[in-house]
């Protein structure tokens, strides 16, 4: 039943706004912070509801609605590459009726009663698009935003069985899923545990992180695997069905999943889904569902695609696994910004192949809304590899021993008064010297997003803070190594490694340095904006709130936070301290690859705004004008180019498409 169907416009408008905010929030948590606060199922349900509202009232669609884009995994470090054919995402379903509906829709679209499907395991990994041009593997693109991805070719090449050359000419795109199998995942985590470092949350995160490593030798150690299962553009391959394509893949040397199956109809699809729902735990890799595709390519073409999803394919997601257990206590965690997060301590219970001891409770509002009490029996849910959630309380099982939970008035770590700021749900410890906050800040400062000090893991940070060795960031650079050697489990070799990685971290780009400082609300994006708009950290600490406000993308709240941070005398002293220890450099200032070259742009670029593209040209020493003249060196042509294109041809100007443009500006970044 469509909820939106019975809503009047005003309520629908309100609801849509509410859904957009929620989805954007969870998206940010997932993509930026790496935290899944809700299950995939809950997320998809919100997305579906929003889609339905927007279908009923198209005037509710706003350009930045989460329905209007697909998730992106683009990072700055890799050259960008366009997919020849977009990598669409596949729609999800959760039950038999949805599958029947999918089948009925295809029957109508194709005007046929009988057609075959191919069923495949939905591997919980990272999608990759191998691009072959004239027989040779030239790019390996991550999905990115579906149009443009990161080229991680050198890392993909570490997988020993990837064909580097094929007999087929022209352009061929072969798509697959990269993953790390469960045994290797466990081995890597064992090693992490031994070294006193934080373990990886799940194989998919580890895979995604591995693909983005800058050192292919490290990638090789991680043993990536891949199953291939789809074609993108296919110039010279004469193949008519998915099944034939799988056979071709195997014969050509592309690794495929042996469990895929061609079936006659949707009933057989359903049997396949049920079969693997039962058997999935026997596999040495994680699957979270089944992908169903029309077998015949001509039917696929006929069914077509929406902007985001192909109509000829769908994913059946296994239901989340649930269990009932006792909630024994609610503990408070204090984060680096002082936010207090309640966490449920559970009587250990086995769920989805792991032992679950804790579940996230998000905040006090959530606890009140679900009326969760200590000693309650609770239904918990875990889907895929995300943090378990408390679905609801089993109230019938209450026996009077339950206790209502309230947020503490004092910080459980440092005993300072806790405050609840009006417009926030969050409760905070306001003591800047709170050990929990110091630990959190230093952990972040040395993390991959900060100074990236490889051999200073979280356990050591915690230990050093507890011992009083680390109080502030700059203490890292005055560590007494002779003293550290005496620590249990430390030893000469570890100290030596630590010394080396600290030394290595002393050269740092401005954006990374700003991010490392952990200024509230700033984050990676804010740090990058600051680095782009100021020449040095000195300029930033001298700037005022209004200067920050002038930067596009920085709002009042963030500007206030930065200004407050740099005005604080303690912070200022610490920044000055760090500046004298570190070499902080602004990115790309020395590289003048486009010195004196005149650029003109026409048409729209997929990967960035015109303004951004012009800025990139300027950063590299070039400049741009609006019209073609005898002085023009390069015309960059986007989609729907104007008359400049014909003019440029007459004047013998170099013409670059977007792909070429991206290659030029990115090949440059590699040299930095
Ligand atoms: Zn505290």
TrEMBL record:
GO terms for biological process: DNA repair; DNA replication. Its EC number is 6.5.1.2. The keyword Lyase does not apply. The keyword NAD applies. NAD(+) binds at residues 40-44, 89-90, 120, 143, 177, 293, 317. InterPro entries: BRCT_dom (IPR001357), BRCT_dom_sf (IPR036420), DisA/LigA_HHH (IPR041663), DNA_ligase (IPR001679), DNA_ligase_CS (IPR033136), DNAligase_adenylation (IPR013839), DNAligase_N (IPR013840), Hlx-hairpin-Hlx_DNA-bd_motif (IPR003583). It is an enzyme of class 6 (ligase). The active site is at 122 (n6-amp-lysine intermediate). Residues 589-655 form the BRCT domain. Pfam families: BRCT, DNA_ligase_aden, DNA_ligase_ZBD, HHH_2, OB_DNA_ligase. It catalyses: NAD(+) + (deoxyribonucleotide)n-3'-hydroxyl + 5'-phospho-(deoxyribonucleotide)m = (deoxyribonucleotide)n+m + AMP + beta-nicotinamide D-nucleotide. DNA ligase that catalyzes the formation of phosphodiester linkages between 5'-phosphoryl and 3'-hydroxyl groups in double-stranded DNA using NAD as a coenzyme and as the energy source for the reaction. It is essential for DNA replication and repair of damaged DNA. Belongs to the NAD-dependent DNA ligase family. LigA subfamily. This is DNA ligase.
